């Protein structure tokens, strides 16, 4: 297949690109600056500039672009950047696919916070309704930006991604730091459901969705067995051989990190129902499996 990838140099894009190339697919990276190699093409999503001939020639366009969520403080201006970076990139690609007749598929990043900030113990599959909160609204606007491509008849899949665990980057590298110094602990009560997935399972599932023409619609990119913040905390401490007796009070979390704190205290018991129905097998189904893979 010929695949065009936006966000190819990021934490998730880099291993996904490598996996697709290893499988023998032809891959072209969309870059904002001047192309440095023959497999790169310049684009400007904020002005809608992209090589339409390249998009028309592709079997699938994959969009993982967007400003990082894990930033403190999350100012109002940065909140706008979070939204605009996702909606602009997605709209640019979806609208281009639509004008070309919908013959190119679109696989787009999304967020597990689509369902809201705090859903308690409710099991959430892909048919569950959207919820409230800033990060939920970001995820919902992100998905809505794919509408033009879907309406044109293109295959559109959305990756509603949980926290991806790997020591190479992402939120986990920051989250694990206090544990390494022996001052890690649960956040709030610890009873809240805490959706995660290993990097290997994310890449494997994303590769399957990109290359399987039968897969469309939303997919919860989260581990097979849900875990709570307390279970994550206990297991991380055990594997690092560090104490986890400390706890961070909820009010302190929201005071220091704002919107991110609300998400950390919220509960999302996401189930990867559609991946399981598609026969996907998780290499790291439990939090113990994920953390062993992330730390080694």
Protein topology:
Elements: E1 2-6, H1 13-22, E2 26-31, E3 40-42, H2 52-57, E4 60-63, H3 76-99, E5 105-111, E6 123-124, H4 134-144, H5 147-151, E7 156-161, E8 163-165, H6 170-180, E9 185-187, E10 196-198, H7 199-211, E11 217-221, H8 229-240, E12 246-248, H9 250-257, H10 259-265, E13 269-270, H11 273-277, H12 287-295
Parallel strand pairs: 1-2, 1-4, 2-3, 4-5, 5-7, 6-13, 7-11, 8-10, 9-12
Overview of this structure, please?
With 296 residues, the chain is of the alpha/beta class. It has helices at residues 13-22, 52-57, 76-99, 134-144, 147-151, 170-180, 199-211, 229-240, 250-257, 259-265, 273-277, 287-295; strands at 2-6, 26-31, 40-42, 60-63, 105-111, 123-124, 156-161, 163-165, 185-187, 196-198, 217-221, 246-248, 269-270. A seven-stranded parallel β-sheet has the order 3-2-1-4-5-7-11, with helices on both faces. Helix 1 (13-22) crosses helix 7 (199-211) and helix 9 (250-257) packs antiparallel against helix 10 (259-265). The longest helix is centred in the N-terminal third of the chain and has 24 residues, at 76-99. The radius of gyration is 19 Å and the shape is globular. The mean pLDDT is 93.
Structural descriptors:
single chain, alpha/beta
Number of strands: 13
**Helix count from the secondary structure assignment:** 12
- Uncertain parts: none
Radius of gyration: 19 Å
Whole-number average pLDDT?
A: 93
Percent helix: 40-55%
How far the N terminus sits from the C terminus, by CA atoms, comes to 32 Å
Shape: globular
The biggest sheet, with number of strands, parallel, antiparallel or mixed sense and barrel status, is: 7 strands, parallel
């Amino acid at each position: 297949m010929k695949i065009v990838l936006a966000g190819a140099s990021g934490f998730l894009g880099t291993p996904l690109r490598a996996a697709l190339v290893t499988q023998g697919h032809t891959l072209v990276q969309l870059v904002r600056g001047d192309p440095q190699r023959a497999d790169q093409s310049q684009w400007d999503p904020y002005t809608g500039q992209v090589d339409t001939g390249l998009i028309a020639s592709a079997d699938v366009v994959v969009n993982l672009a967007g400003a990082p969520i894990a930033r403190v403080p999350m100012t109002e201006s940065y909140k706008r950047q979070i939204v605009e970076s996702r909606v602009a990139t997605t709209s640019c690609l979806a609208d281009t696919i639509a004008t070309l007749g919908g013959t190119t598929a679109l696989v787009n990043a999304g967020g597990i916070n689509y369902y809201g900030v705090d859903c308690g113990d409710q099991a959430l599959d892909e048919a569950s309704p959207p919820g409230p909160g800033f990060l939920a609204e970001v995820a919902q606007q992100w998905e809505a930006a794919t509408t033009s491509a879907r309406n044109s008849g293109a295959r559109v899949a959305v990756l509603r991604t949980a926290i991806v665990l790997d020591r190479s980057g992402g939120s986990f590298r920051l989250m694990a730091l206090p544990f390494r110094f022996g001052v890690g602990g649960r956040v709030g009560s610890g009873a809240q459901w805490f959706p995660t997935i290993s990097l290997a399972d994310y890449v494997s599932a994303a590769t399957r969705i990109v290359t399987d023409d039968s897969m469309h619609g939303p997919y919860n990119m989260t581990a097979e067995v849900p875990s709570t913040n307390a279970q994550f905390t206990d297991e991380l401490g055990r594997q690092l051989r560090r104490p986890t007796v400390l706890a961070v009070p909820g009010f302190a979390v929201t005071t220091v990190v704002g919107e991110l704190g609300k998400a950390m205290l919220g509960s999302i018991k996401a189930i990867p129902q559609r991946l399981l129905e598609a026969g996907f097998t998780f290499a790291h189904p439990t939090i113990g499996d994920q953390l062993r893979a992330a730390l080694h």
